[in-house]
Design brief:
Length: 206
């Protein structure tokens, strides 16, 4: 079932002058690659799209949705926190860093953020935290799709730079093949060495 817009409608009824944006992340669980945080500003024209949590869509469906979304609205962005930043800051602070970068990239900040999860992305920014929000809000689902597709594109580029690890296929997740490759070659600069099963490894030099 596609995510709906009941929350967006309810908020606009209370104050039609509001601008809303959804926010979601991609790449919390991988052992390699960046964390991506997408933000997408609500527009009524997006309601014609059947959007859902990016994890429930096929790669082809995500790419199609991505193309349609960016054609509808220019007020979107994806921010990244690098693997080295995740290792230094921890995943929660890295999320806030990537979220700040995404928000800073917008030409106009939203009045309210609808955020998937339970972590306030930037203290002082009005937000509504919604666990599993990408299944409840079409605006959050849009942000989820943008974050996932942009991160996947980056992982495919990293696969060309570090072909030993199969990033194009595993997108940095700890599949059996990926973990075995790390055991064989050691982690590369894109690996999160603070994550199990990499804690006892050191990154290779570029």
């Amino acid at each position: 079932m596609a995510a709906g817009y009941a929350l967006e409608h309810r908020l606009f009824q209370g104050d039609p002058s509001l601008s809303l944006a959804g926010m979601d992340e991609a790449g919390r669980g991988p052992i390699a690659g960046p964390l991506a945080v997408g933000v997408f500003t609500y527009t009524p024209t997006m309601e014609g799209l059947a959007l859902d949590d990016s994890k429930k869509l096929t790669p082809l469906q995500r790419l199609k949705a991505h193309k349609l979304l960016v054609g509808l609205n220019s007020l979107w962005a994806v921010g990244f926190a690098l693997a080295s930043e995740i290792d230094t800051l921890g995943i929660s602070k890295a999320f806030r860093l990537a979220a700040r970068r995404a928000l800073d990239a917008l030409s106009c900040l939203p009045s309210i953020l609808l955020v998937d999860g339970t972590l306030d992305p930037r203290p002082g920014t009005p937000c509504i935290l919604l666990p599993k929000g990408d299944a409840l809000s079409g605006t959050i689902a849009a942000a989820s799709i943008l974050a996932k597709t942009m991160r996947d594109r980056l992982m495919e580029k990293l696969d060309a730079r570090y072909p030993a690890y199969g990033f194009a296929a595993n997108k940095g997740y700890p599949t059996c093949h990926h973990v075995e490759r790390v055991r064989m070659f050691g982690p590369c600069p894109e690996h999160r060495v603070s994550f199990a099963p990499l804690k006892h490894h050191e990154r290779q030099a570029c």
